[in-house]
Amino acid sequence: MTKPLDHEQMLHVAVEEAEAGLAEGGIPIGAALFDGKGRLLGRGHNRRVQEDDPSIHGETDAFRKAGRQRSYRETVMVTTLAPCWYCSGLVRQFGIGTLIVGESVNFRGGIDWLAENGIRIIDMNSTRCVEMLKDFIEANPELWNEDIGT
């Protein structure tokens, strides 16, 4: 019998990354990629502002740091916020099997589309994640709108 994955602990890793990004003056979105047994493969955070690179979202940072995998079907992407279309495309393109979302209140992203395409979605509805991004959006609306492409 396999031990169930600890979704709270997995989300904690992504929250630590989001907090690191915020402390660096960036957008507080963190992510982590785990294998099917819960072993951390890679973690990262949105570094668009810090690196002046629009492609470094939290999910892409974690994905890149995880390195090449033979298959992604059994992997779990954990992110503090529902992924944008760019990051949703990454999840879909590589067939990541499960997506754990800290929250989808402030931004729904592509989670409905991912679910329709067979990705297992677990929305944690984390108060910490909701409040962290809500506070950031209120304080930095222009930067937030730039991040989501509006």
Could you explain the architecture of this structure?
- The chain contains seven helices and five strands.
- It has 150 residues and is α/β, with parallel strands linked by helices.
- A five-stranded mixed sheet has the order 2-1-3-4-5.
- Strand 3, helix 4 and strand 4 (98-101) form a beta-alpha-beta unit.
- Helix 6 (127-139) crosses helix 7.
The arrangement of helices and strands along the chain is HEEHHEHEHEHH
Rg for CA atoms: 14 Å
How much of the residues is beta strand, in percent? 15-25%
Biggest beta sheet summary: 5 strands, mixed
**Count of separate DSSP helical elements:** 7
Q: Name the structural class.
A: alpha/beta
Provide a quick synopsis of the model:
The protein is of the alpha/beta class and 150 residues long. 45% of the residues lie in helices and 15% in strands.
Task: Provide keyphrases for this structure.
alpha/beta; single chain; 45% helix; 150 residues
Layout of helices and strands, plus pairs?
Layout: H1 7-23, E1 30-34, E2 40-45, H2 48-51, H3 58-66, E3 76-79, H4 85-94, E4 98-101, H5 111-116, E5 120-123, H6 127-139, H7 141-148
Parallel strand pairs: 3-4, 4-5
Antiparallel strand pairs: 1-2, 1-3
